[in-house]
Design goal:
Chain A: This is Beta-lysine 5,6-aminomutase beta subunit. The complex is a heterodimer of chains A (252) and B (529). In chain A, 34% of the residues lie in helices and 23% in strands. Chain A is an alpha/beta fold and 252 residues long. Chain A has two domains: 71 residues, 2-Layer Sandwich (Defensin A-like), CATH 3.30.30.60; 163 residues, Cobalamin-binding domain (Rossmann fold). In chain B, helix 1 packs across helix 13, helix 2 runs parallel beside helix 9 and helix 15 runs parallel beside helix 16. Chain B is globular. The chains are: A alpha/beta (252), B alpha/beta (529).
């Protein structure tokens, strides 16, 4: 199979894509021409304007179909592949019980002004997400969910008090890059408060994070869209239990 | 409403209400016997104190803090404030002096208290007169310009962070068909223990609720209301730590609806339960005087809990919200009780279940302007499927006669709505409203059918849960995670330090007026069975 791909409409290689956007102009012939010109500049060949509709007085919404002139080489696509084995809740519990010999403590929160607990709740609440139960369901995990709008110093203090092995932070609001600022602030606060060997594993998640940005943000791991509780649990066990000695050497 | 849409067991309905009244009573007693810093500050706002110090801290906070430090808040701060006012030209200058540490506050007693009492009553009456005037102005505008021609009213959210950006967006939304504009608040405002001042241009995922922002937006929508020929209602949020103050500002600036849930702040913002219930009672009393429709937040429970398993917690919360609202003097036409279309679309018969739950609410609260909230939890980023789901949500709203419909966005969970997202969403609503305008008339589920059985089943579960809440106490039920899975103990959460038990000599000119109203407003009393 070819490693070079184009979008697929109804025939291999047709390159067909569909695109919708709004231009800040009233709907007339010129507006439609502008939409087609934009589509051409975006790399659509033989673009068809299939729908144009005025929105209010000065805006027009367009739907355009056309053949993309771009190709993608799958061999050149870079992604963060999962670098730890996926485990079931039972495997996670067994590993923690047998190799750690105590419960693994996870403290979770939405930090800063972010009030959207949907992410942290999906991972932590027993209810879970996508048919998976959350970390509260794992018998060998002790979960402390601090909820929304937790101040970073409070999170650090609580993590210390609870003896957290891992801290999970969820950030949904991305306006003005709030998620990135908050994450850096949190990472810095933990670095300041605790020496490397005693720092909990810092994990941040949210739909708009780049999974490759962990080092840049000062955290151990970034999870993005589509993460489920078992992804997080597997990662925690991998880093804190099964590959523990290596981690200690690394951070000591 | 004419014929009942759904045959509900009348005995079960009566039992549910009686239990809700019993469950609410201890909390009402608690609310009546406590005060909070925000209730006291709201009194100062009603007395006309505005403005903020150079750091942006409102003068009501500076003054209230100074009094609280010296006399505490348990006697009410009005007497110390208005007693001290004898030596100052007005409240603003008294606040300046107090902030500089130059005022000695004391609680006047006996005859010495009378002049202070008179001054306080006079000042606060002006605030209530403004609220009354705005209420009359709304009535006049509605009768002059008219209400939306259809039900449900179409409710749209605007949120840019900048009030001057919000205004044209809100006006455009009204012209595109919105009947109600909600200016969503900046993330985090609920946890500020003060209300920011002035027109604001910087917010996170929303715009700060301030008196000036309220005034600017209301004036703009008055203009648009005349243009479009229907009175466009304005909504904001009386929630969080400053609920009473925001309610007072809303009344004085003619907001038309306010989100005001009895338990939302406790569950989702970890605000102390007692603080919340005390603040909430005061804010609802103010809303009642202002003719403001409250919107309750039951939809939120379903975003954390499962919408099928937890359906009865919505009913329980609606009954409690109703009870607390009645007790605070709000009549049924001002009770925008909430519920939502949040059942997982993968569940078989999910639409029939939604219809059952929606009809149950409609039937239980026939005179309340119910607020029907769109799917959010199961909006995945697949915008095409999202648009279909929103269509079914709209259809359920029309079929079951909902009163206020919050327009669902197919880009929920993806981006804050774009101009085109709103347009597509409104097109969806308009199609359903025009295609099925009178469908409710033909839709009478049979007594032995799936929908009627499910509705009665949920009501039965609600009665069971209410029974347990009566036995355990509502505060314990909240502490145990009964609602939305969140566990919130009564001695935890934010804002507890701003709560005080009222002393025997507690006096507030606002409470005096509001509680007098209470006595004259016939409150719906249900017999306990």
């Amino acid at each position: 199979m070819s490693r070079i791909v184009r979008p697929y409409g109804d025939t291999t290689g047709d390159g067909m894509v569909q695109l919708s956007f709004t231009l800040p102009v009233p709907h007339d012939k010129r507006a439609e021409g502008a939409a087609l010109q934009l589509a051409a500049k975006m790399g659509l060949d033989g673009a068809m304007l299939v729908h144009a509709k005025p929105i209010g007085e000065g805006y027009t919404f367009f739907v355009v179909y056309g053949a993309s002139t771009h190709l993608v080489n799958l061999d050149e696509v870079k992604v963060v592949e999962r670098d730890y084995p996926h485990m079931s809740p039972k495997e996670v519990n067994d590993a923690v019980r047998e190799r750690l010999g105590r419960k693994l403590c996870v403290v979770g929160a939405c930090i800063g002004t972010d009030a959207h607990t949907v992410g942290i709740d999906a991972i932590l609440n027993i209810k879970g997400v996508a048919g998976e139960k959350g970390l509260e369901y794992y018998r060998e995990l002790r979960v402390v969910n601090l909820g929304a709008q937790v101040a970073v110093p409070d999170l650090v203090n609580r993590a210390v008090d609870e003896g957290a092995d891992a801290v999970l932070v969820s950030q949904v609001v991305t306006q003005k890059d709030a998620h990135l600022h908050n994450t850096r602030e949190m990472a810095a606060a933990f670095r300041e408060a605790l020496p490397p060997g005693r720092r909990p594993l810092l994990v941040v998640g949210g739909p708009r994070f780049d999974e490759g940005a962990a080092a840049e943000l000062g955290v151990d791991r970034v999870f993005s869209r589509g993460t489920t509780p078992s992804d997080v649990a597997s990662y925690l066990v991998h880093r804190l239990v099964t590959s523990r000695p290596a981690t200690e050497v690394e951070t000591a | 409403m004419t014929a009942p849409l759904l045959p509900l067991d009348p005995e079960l309905v009566a039992r549910a209400r009686a239990l809700a009244a019993r469950a609410a009573q201890p909390v009402v007693d608690l609310a009546r016997s406590h005060t909070t810093v925000s209730v006291e500050r709201a009194t100062l706002r009603l007395a006309g104190l505005t403005g903020a110090d150079p750091d942006g801290i409102p003068w009501v906070n500076r003054l209230a803090d100074a009094v609280a430090e010296q006399t505490g808040i348990e006697h009410g701060i009005a007497l110390p404030v208005f007693h001290a006012l004898k030596d100052h030209p007005d409240l603003t200058r008294l606040a300046h002096a107090a902030a500089a540490g130059g005022v000695r506050f004391e609680l006047p007693t006996g005859r010495a208290a009378e002049p202070a009492r008179t001054r306080a009553r006079r000042a606060v009456s002006k605030g209530f007169a403004r609220i009354e005037e705005q209420r009359r102005e709304r009535d006049a505008l509605v009768s002059e310009i008219g209400d939306p021609p259809q039900r449900p009213w179409i409710y749209l959210i605007v949120a840019t962070g900048d009030i001057f950006e919000d205004i044209p967006q809100a006006q455009a939304a009204a012209k595109a068909g919105a009947d109600v504009i909600a200016v969503i608040r900046s993330t985090g405002q609920s946890l500020l223990d003060y209300v920011p001042e002035g027109a604001t241009r910087e917010g996170f995922a929303g715009t700060y609720a301030t008196g000036e922002n309220f005034r600017l937006m209301r004036a703009a929508l008055d203009e648009t209301s005349r243009e479009v020929g229907r009175y466009i209602r304005l909504t904001n949020y009386a929630s969080g730590l400053c609920m009473p103050e925001i309610a007072a500002l809303a009344g004085m600036h003619r907001l038309d609806m306010m989100l005001n849930d009895s338990m939302y702040g406790i569950l989702f913002r970890d605000i102390n339960p007692i603080r919340t219930f005390v603040d909430q009672r005061f804010s609802r009393q103010v809303h009642a005087r202002a003719g403001i429709i409250i919107n309750t937040g039951e939809d939120n429970y379903l975003t954390t809990a499962d919408a099928v398993e937890a359906a009865h917690t919505v009913t329980v919360s609606q009954l409690l919200n109703e009870r607390f609202a009645h007790e605070a003097g709000l009549p049924d036409p001002l009770l925008g009780l909430g519920h939502a279309f949040e059942i997982n679309p993968e569940v078989p018969e999910s639409f029939r279940l939604e219809l059952a739950h929606a009809l149950l609410a409609r039937q239980l609260f026939p005179d309340a302007p119910l607020k029907w909230m769109p799917p959010t939890k199961h909006m995945t980023g697949d915008v095409f499927r999202g648009n279909l789901l929103d269509g079914f949500f709209n259809l359920a709203g029309v079929m079951t006669g909902q009163s206020i419909l919050l327009v669902g966005m197919m880009t929920e969970a993806v981006v804050t709505p774009w101009l085109s997202d709103r347009d597509i969403a409104l097109q969806n609503v308009r199609y359903v409203l025009s295609a099925c305008a009178g469908l409710a008339e033909d839709f009478h589920p049979p007594a032995d059918g799936f929908i009627a059985k499910r509705a009665n089943h949920v009501l039965g579960e609600a009665v069971d849960l209410l029974g347990r809440i009566v036995d355990d106490g509502l505060l314990n039920a909240i502490a145990d995670g009964t609602f939305g899975i969140m566990k919130r103990p009564a001695d935890g959460g934010r804002g507890l330090e701003g709560v005080a038990e009222r002393a025997d000599d507690y006096w507030s000119p606002a409470a005096e007026i509001l509680d007098r109203d209470d006595a004259t407003t016939p409150v719906h009393e249900e017999p306990v069975r």
